[in-house]
């Protein structure tokens, strides 16, 4: 797994690099100090996943993520956003831009490695603690590009697909969804794939956003 690290703090990048290089099957293919460097290195270093700090000079992590997600040559490159929760108001914007998940920076080293594996495998990953509060904050000023079109799109979902979407929004993976609903993991995976197709969602992270912004799931219920 080829990992690109983007953070404007040299010490943070060095610590992350040592951690990633110590993990079997992972290698660091580049380090970026700005968002623009991150986009350029994602193109040239053939990274599979970018660990992206949200706050960086020149081009912030949100815009860098947006450029990576919009680049057809970078299709399949995943972005894991990092934030200092107490000061960062832009986590959901990063998810809307194309990030497949986010973690707060005080995450334990082992959890960061597991997060990289999870996102690289195509699963969404959201730090469980701040997720509901962050979404509640964002919903006070919903994205006009998403809000308004989503409720109608949800009408295309079957009752079972709505149940699955609720569980995705609560952070359950396919195996957990299968256990909750009494399905096989393959059937749960099929439901998630169909929901993504019907809602034109890039990944599970965007399904989470849609579920909250449509009102299907509320931060309090999650």
UniProtKB/TrEMBL annotation:
<feature type="domain" description="HTH luxR-type">
    <location>
        <begin position="150"/>
        <end position="215"/>
    </location>
</feature>
<dbReference type="InterPro" id="IPR058245">
    <property type="entry name" value="NreC/VraR/RcsB-like_REC"/>
</dbReference>
<keyword id="KW-0238">DNA-binding</keyword>
<keyword id="KW-0805">Transcription regulation</keyword>
<keyword id="KW-0804">Transcription</keyword>
<dbReference type="Pfam" id="PF00196">
    <property type="entry name" value="GerE"/>
</dbReference>
<dbReference type="InterPro" id="IPR001789">
    <property type="entry name" value="Sig_transdc_resp-reg_receiver"/>
</dbReference>
<dbReference type="InterPro" id="IPR039420">
    <property type="entry name" value="WalR-like"/>
</dbReference>
<protein>
    <submittedName>
        <fullName>Response regulator transcription factor</fullName>
    </submittedName>
</protein>
<feature type="modified residue" description="4-aspartylphosphate">
    <location>
        <position position="53"/>
    </location>
</feature>
<dbReference type="InterPro" id="IPR011006">
    <property type="entry name" value="CheY-like_superfamily"/>
</dbReference>
<feature type="domain" description="Response regulatory">
    <location>
        <begin position="2"/>
        <end position="120"/>
    </location>
</feature>
<keyword id="KW-0597">Phosphoprotein</keyword>
<dbReference type="Pfam" id="PF00072">
    <property type="entry name" value="Response_reg"/>
</dbReference>
<dbReference type="InterPro" id="IPR000792">
    <property type="entry name" value="Tscrpt_reg_LuxR_C"/>
</dbReference>
């Amino acid at each position: 797994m080829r990992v690109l690290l983007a953070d404007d703090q040299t010490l943070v990048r060095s610590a992350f690099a040592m951690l990633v290089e110590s993990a079997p099957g992972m290698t660091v293919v580049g380090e970026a100090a700005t968002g623009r460097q991150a986009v350029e290195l994602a193109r040239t270093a053939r990274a599979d996943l970018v660990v992206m700090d949200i706050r960086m000079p020149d081009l912030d992590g949100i815009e860098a993520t947006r450029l990576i997600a919009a680049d057809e040559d970078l299709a399949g490159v995943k972005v894991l956003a990092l934030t200092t929760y107490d000061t960062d108001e832009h986590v959901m914007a990063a998810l809307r831009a194309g990030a497949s998940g986010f973690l707060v920076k005080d995450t334990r080293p082992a959890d960061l490695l597991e997060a990289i594996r999870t996102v690289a495998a195509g699963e969404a990953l959201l730090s469980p603690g701040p997720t509901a509060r962050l979404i509640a904050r964002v919903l006070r000023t919903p994205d006009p590009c998403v809000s308004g079109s989503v409720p109608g799109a949800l009408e295309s979902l079957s009752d079972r697909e709505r149940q699955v979407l609720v569980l995705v929004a609560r952070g359950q993976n396919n195996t957990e969804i299968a256990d909750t609903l009494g399905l096989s993991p393959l059937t749960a995976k099929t439901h998630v794939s169909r929901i993504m197709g019907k809602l034109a969602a890039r990944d599970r992270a965007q399904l989470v956003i849609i579920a909250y912004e449509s009102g299907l799931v509320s931060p309090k219920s999650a």
